[in-house]
Amino acid sequence: MNFDGERKRIDVCGGEGGRRLDRLLAEKLREYSRSRIQAWIREGRVLLNGRVSKASAEVEEGDIVELTIPPVRKMEGVVPQKMDLEILYEDEFLVVLNKPAGLVVHPGAGVSSGTLVNGLLYYCKDLAGIGGVERPGIVHRLDKETSGCLVVAKRERIHQELVREFAGRRVGKVYLAVVEGEVKGKEGRVEVPIVRHPVYRCKMAALKREGARFARTDWRVLVVGGGMSLLECRPVTGRTHQIRVHLKHIGHAVVGDKLYGRRQGWGRHLLHAWKLRFQHPGIGVEMEFCAPVPAEFPLLPPVKGEGRISV
User: Fold this and answer.
1) Which pLDDT value is given to residue 137?
2) The domain containing residue 41 runs over which residues?
3) Is 182 found in the same domain as 160?
């Protein structure tokens, strides 16, 4: 079968024999994930000594592996759009930006324009295809109404390594949440599993039932006043709506959260991805970024640290 794309040849050298075909390719082509390589093997894009083989096939010294890497597939109907993006940091490997509230991260469900992805495709011309077609460069996501730090990878290898950092819970995430009521105590932990709500499918719920996934959020009170509290929240896991669900569970829903609390005239829920810390995979240095606190927040942290980049 003849495929379009970039062709590569790999000669199996001494000491590499006995490995699985997919593992060998994952080691040789670190800019691509193992799951993507396995998909190419299933599609017949990988030949072992001229023959289509399985991912589990063992290679031997002297074997020849030929691979056709498919060309980048463009996103249908999603076009680059000029946008005012607040860039906190940028280098040749990645971009860290302050996502404003109200901006959807990626297209979906009939939305093909006005998303962060549209803006990123305009700002970074070579993002298409990195990390998958639908979410070029996007390593993690924030809800539409949540503002704050978001990192975008410019290269496939950087994307894969950042995804592994997030999955391995090695990324430090600090959120600010203005919640309903004056929270008693100084700090606490919510460790309740999260699952799709059994009745309202657009919501998540903190329930111990089949299918629920472990979730943990640590919180600390920063300021109390006016019938509200400002919390510093550190999600250890990254479940959908985790902070909002956990704060609702302890009786202090995020102010303005129409899904888990009450809108009460607020234009958004008051949740902000304040700080983000991770090991920069391109330069091997741990870095921390801090996004300015939104002007609409009625309570502010004692020390803002706005716009700070720490190394």
Assistant:
1) 84
2) 6-69
3) no
Per-residue tokens: 117: 């992805």
Q: Is residue 1 part of a domain?
A: no
The per-residue pLDDT for range 200-213, each reduced to its tens digit, is: 888 999 998 888 99
Cα gap 236→230, rounded to integer Å = 19
Q: Are 116 and 152 in contact (CB under 8 A)?
A: no
Q: Which two structure tokens, joined as six digits, stand for 281?
A: 């995979």
Residue 98 and residue 31 share a domain: no
pLDDT tens column, 274-285: 999 999 999 999
* 200 in any annotated domain: yes
In whole angstroms, what is the distance from residue 59 CA to residue 13 CA? 10
Tokens of 21: 């075909």
CB count, 10 Å around CB of 228?
20
**Pairing verdict, β 64-69 and 46-48:** antiparallel
Domain count, the chain: 3
Eight-state DSSP code of residue 266: -
| Active-site amino acid positions | 143
Q: Determine the Cα–Cα distance for residues 122 and 34; give it in Å rounded to an integer.
A: 29
Cα separation, 9 vs 13, whole angstroms: 12
**Bridge partner residues of 228 (DSSP):** 180, 225
What gap in Å lies between CA 176 and CA 308, rounded to an integer?
16
DSSP reduced 3-state for 250: coil
d(CA 11, CA 222): 59
Identify whether residues 24 and 86 lie together within a single domain: no
